[in-house]
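step=encode ok
step=design start
structure_in=
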């Protein structure tokens, strides 16, 4: 679990792999990782395909409503893998907003949405999970998959 603590100079520190880094520096390092890799391929390789099983279990637990009024916010959504699964599980009726701090990841997702004919079901928003740019109660569900570790614990609600 991500933990933040006060460093010797009074700033906030947090864990990044085996290192302790300043909180602001962690976000820069996290962004660099996701800009450098072909993320979807990396996921398959690093989890030996297991992430697909975890994600299927997550979507089954969420059990999205088959309803055009059903709205989900997928935070740290990357290329939209979770959001696509939600929309498909709703019979292509639900709407998912993919929020991520990395515009390149979102761009890949937006292209994919267009190719799949799902542009009306998906919105891609570049923003920080720590400062969500939405009114309260805008969504029926909030999901975050393999993302909470990138958000310093001191900013959790
Ligand atoms: C491991 S990926 C998970 C992507 C997607 N949820 C999935 O399961 O395929 C983590 C994502 O978190 C995003 N991220 C990291 N820090 C973030 C922050 N502070 N706010 C929003 N997104 C962030 C990264 O850009 C990356 O796309």
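sequence_out=
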């Amino acid at each position: 679990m991500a933990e933040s603590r006060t460093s010797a100079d009074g700033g906030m520190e947090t864990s990044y792999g085996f290192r302790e880094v300043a909180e602001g520096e962690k976000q820069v390092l996290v962004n660099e990782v996701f800009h450098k890799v072909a993320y979807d391929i990396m996921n398959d390789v690093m989890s030996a395909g297991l992430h697909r099983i975890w994600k299927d279990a997550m979507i089954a637990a969420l059990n999205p409503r088959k309803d055009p009024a059903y709205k989900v916010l997928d935070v740290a959504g990357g290329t939209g893998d979770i959001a696509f699964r939600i929309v498909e599980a709703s019979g292509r009726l639900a709407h998912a907003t993919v929020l991520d701090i990395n515009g390149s990841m979102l761009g890949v997702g937006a292209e994919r949405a267009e190719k799949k004919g799902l542009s009306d079901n998906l919105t891609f928003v570049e923003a920080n999970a720590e400062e969500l740019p939405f009114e309260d109660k805008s969504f029926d569900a909030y999901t975050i998959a393999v993302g909470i570790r990138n958000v310093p614990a001191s900013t959790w609600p």
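step=design ok
step=annotate ok -> DSSP finds five helices and seven strands in the chain.
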